Amino acid sequence: MILVAFQGASVDGEAYTDVVDSAQHAPTWLDSAISVWSTYGLALFAVLMVVGWWRARRVGAEAAVTALAVPVVVVAAYGIDSLLKAVVRENRPCRTLRVVTLEACPAQGDWSFPSNHATIAAAAAVALFFVSRRIGAVAAVAALAMAASRVWVGVHYPHDVVAGVAVGTLLALGAMTLLKRRPDSLTRRITATRLRPLLVS
To answer: Tens digit of pLDDT per residue, the chain (201 long)?
Structure first.
């Protein structure tokens, strides 16, 4: 995936232009809604993290630790995604192809592969499943919507968001699985600090 990403247009450039063209012919209200979601939708995941943590505190300290791990995992996923961007250095499709997009094309050097938004959303959704299946399900739908919106507004190729979802999913799954194996030791350490109020209601 990384090797072919250098020439993003050759991977799925045609699919990208089809989506962007569809956006140009879509109803204004739909484009506006998707643009707003693409720009501000990540805030929903922050809200879901807070809700998940608040509910987890009532369950117990170990559940609260799991909930508090979610934003840590998301930040780590973002960091790794950013490193991948710096290695691959794929130009944005809106700079490589002659298209009119809903969102202004990011500046040169703001690389395209993988999608930060898709990575963050996917990591949050997967991690939240370990806190609450219901919250995780809501986050999963939102993550897919976020990934799709980034192509719709014209700032990413489809393979950028697919890779972002894969990166976020794998990292969050690995990190949360490791945490769930031995949550007791971490819980004891945090409980012995000033952070104890974050674990119990």
So the answer is: 444 445 666 678 789 888 999 998 899 999 999 999 999 999 999 999 999 988 888 887 777 888 888 999 999 999 999 999 999 888 888 888 888 888 888 888 888 899 999 999 999 999 999 999 999 999 999 999 999 999 999 899 999 999 999 999 999 999 999 887 776 666 666 655 565 555 655
Tokens of 112: 């395209």
One-character DSSP codes across 53-71: HHHHHHH-HHHHHHHHHHH
Copy the structure tokens of residue 189: 């350490």
- Can you spell out the DSSP letters for 70-125? HHHHHHHHHHHHHHHHHHH-PPPHHHHS----SSPPPPTT---SS-HHHHHHHHHH
Hey, what's the torsion of the CAs at 85, 88, 93, 94, to 10 degrees? 50
Q: How far does the chain reach from its first CA to its final CA, in angstroms? A: 46
Tokens standing for residue 140: 């999963």
**1 CB contacts (<8 Å, ≥6 apart)?**
159, 163
CA distance 195 to 147: 35
Tokens of 14: 């045609």
